[in-house]
Amino acid sequence: MTKRNRNRKKKKENITEINDVIKTIIIVLVIFIGFYVLTIFLTKNQLPIRNKENIIAVIQYKEILAGETFNKPEKEYYVLFFNHQNKEKEIYNLIIERYENNLPIYTVDLENGFNQSIVKENSNKEAQNVSSLQINQPTLIKIKEGRNILYKEGQEEIKKILNN
Fold first, then answer.
1. Least CB-packed of 2, 119, 127, 158 within 10 Å?
2. Of 96, 111, 102, 121, residue with least CA distance to 66
3. Closest C-alpha to 154, from 132, 123, 130, 128
4. pTM attached to this predicted model
5. Distance between CA 94 and CA 127 in Å, rounded?
6. Phi, psi at 34, each rounded to 5°
7. How far apart are CA 155 and CA 92, in angstroms?
8. What is the dihedral of CA 102, 79, 65, 132, to 10 degrees?
9. pLDDT of the residue at 1
10. For 130-158, b where at least 16 C-beta lie within 10 A, e where not — what string?
11. CATH for 62-162?
12. pLDDT by residue (tens digit) across 59-103?
């Protein structure tokens, strides 16, 4: 074999290797683009549509545990105690929805197992801390600087306070 034939053979091998690399790159790109197009096609109906006309304003209130009644960061706020599992939930959610004051409202679910320690036969309207808190029916307490300054029981009394 002559030197010229060896050089031709090496050039052919190099060209073949380069062609193989180019083919591999093209195949990888085609597969990548195929997966990309497939992903877009399959998820186009699942992308969130932002339509400003369908945004509903909701008054946000927060559910807390009874143990947090006297230690929220605001200087003044209401805490509404009621059962979140029965018809009362709809009634009190409506009352809260119509509430127009600037004071935050926190709710406590009397059915929640963590709050069972405050559910008693007799209420303590003078409670100034969690250990003396006793609730026996839907109750609204207004807290100012960590102190109970208003204590109302029953749906009608709560409506009067929150819807003034």
1. 2
2. 111
3. 123
4. 0.62
5. 27
6. -60, -45
7. 8
8. 140
9. 58
10. eeebbbeebbbbbbeeeebeebbbeeeeb
11. 3.40.30.10
12. 456 899 999 999 999 999 999 999 988 787 888 888 888 887 778
